[in-house]
């Protein structure tokens, strides 16, 4: 079922009888020429990239730290409210 089926020599298409084109005297290029423009990095552009990357890392870090701080403050405030409610409910039950 999963075994490959190879064509037998009598059903395979015959090889093409075309003759290869004679080689021209033009040397082949050493590397393929790309249609995309190359990027030239100068010292100033490298410094700008490093500075921009540093700024992005600092901003993302500040946002993540502030979100963590907001979660911590919310958790502490919920815990304080729970303790105050527990004390108030305990006082109400003792007065009855």
Can you put this structure into words, describing what you see?
It contains one helix and no strands. The protein is mainly alpha-helical and 96 residues long. The longest helix has 53 residues. The mean pLDDT is 84.
Overview features:
single chain; 96 residues; mainly alpha; 55% helix; elongated
Instruction: Based on Cα principal axes, name the global outline.
Output: elongated
Poorly predicted segments: none
What fraction, in percent, of the residue positions are helical? 55-70%
Q: State the secondary-structure class.
A: mainly alpha
The share of residues in extended strands comes to under 5%
What secondary-structure arrangement, pairings included, does this model have?
Layout: H1 43-95
Q: In a nutshell, what does this entry contain?
A:
This protein has about 100 residues and is mainly alpha-helical. The protein is about 55% helix and about 0% strand. It starts with about 40 loop residues before the first helix and ends with a helix.
């Amino acid at each position: 079922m999963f075994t490959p089926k190879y064509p037998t020599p009598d059903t395979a298409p015959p090889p093409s009888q075309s003759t290869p084109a004679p080689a021209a005297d033009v040397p082949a290029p050493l590397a393929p020429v790309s249609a995309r423009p190359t990027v030239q990095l100068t010292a100033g552009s490298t410094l700008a990239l490093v500075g921009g990357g540093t700024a992005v890392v600092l901003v993302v870090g500040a946002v993540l730290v502030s979100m963590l701080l907001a979660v911590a403050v919310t958790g502490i405030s919920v815990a304080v409210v729970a303790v105050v409610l527990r004390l108030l409910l305990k006082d109400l039950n003792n007065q009855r």
